[in-house]
Design brief:
By secondary structure, the chain is an alpha+beta fold. It contains 13 helices and 4 strands. The protein has 3 domains: 8-104, 3-Layer(aba) Sandwich (Glutaredoxin), CATH 3.40.30.10; 107-158, no CATH class; 162-245, no CATH class.
Length: 245
């Protein structure tokens, strides 16, 4: 569909909350745009309604070109949930276009992760064994149910991710006989992050060497869950560094 400055908000931003939308910024005088268009259209059509394609003529819609900083065309952006999450510039080969679309369209494993129950998460891992979000979600579920002996098999393949490493560390700390560790883990179970981090930090300051790394990994895992911009992450990351070094 052709989209204009008057219809962009509804046809792209609002629509992307329902289905991902690919926006092709082009112009009639652009030869590579004419070459890209049928390849992009074909790739979208093969997804049978899982993604929409919108076209913006930058000559007729200069404000949109400025808004999205279009400096060279063809310029393609992908929107999901109201946000631009992927883009590419220039004429791309079909495999690159397929890879771009895969970033926008949730896989079957992604949909199973959204369901969130154990059977769905395990099915997601059958379909995509390397799906990090599925492994982390299943690890959280097992931890909440006290099934610590099952967590290592699920999370070890993705232990390079701070969230996964943090959950593995929490499982190992569950048997630690220290009041601050017990209090911190209990607060985490109830998503009481500030008291949890406070207790864990106090534990870091007095813990023997064999526990300190697991305490650090647990706190870093909480930071990953909260996000780098969260005030607790900023405050306690600095305090953790001071306690460790």
């Amino acid at each position: 569909m052709d989209v204009t400055e008057a219809t962009f908000e509804q046809e792209v931003i609002e629509r992307s909350h329902t289905v991902p939308v690919v926006v092709d910024f082009w112009a009639a005088w652009c030869g590579p745009c004419r070459q890209l268009a049928p390849v992009l259209e074909s790739a979208v059509e093969r997804r049978d309604g899982a993604v929409d394609l919108a076209k913006v003529d930058i000559d007729a819609n200069p404000n949109l070109a400025r808004r999205y900083r279009v400096q060279s065309i063809p310029f393609v952006k992908g929107f999901r949930d109201g946000e631009a999450i992927a883009e590419f510039v220039g004429l791309q080969p079909p495999p690159q276009i397929e890879s771009f679309l895969e970033k926008l369209v949730p896989s079957q494993a992604d949909l199973l992760v959204e369901a969130g129950d154990e059977s769905s998460l395990r099915e997601a891992l059958i379909r995509e064994p390397g799906h990090t979000d599925a492994r982390v979600a299943l690890g959280r579920l097992l931890l909440a149910e006290g099934r610590h002996d099952e967590i290592a098999d699920v999370l070890t393949p993705v232990a390079f991710e701070p969230a996964a490493a943090g959950l593995l560390a929490r499982a190992r700390l569950a048997s630690a006989d220290q009041p601050d560790i017990a209090a911190g883990l209990g607060a985490l179970d109830n998503e009481l992050y500030e008291p949890a981090l406070t207790h864990l930090l106090d534990a870091v300051r007095v813990a023997p060497a064999e526990l300190r790394d697991d305490l650090r990994a647990t706190m870093v895992g909480v930071f990953a869950e909260l996000g780098e911009q969260h005030p607790l992450t900023s405050r306690f990351r600095r305090r953790l560094a001071q306690a460790l070094y």
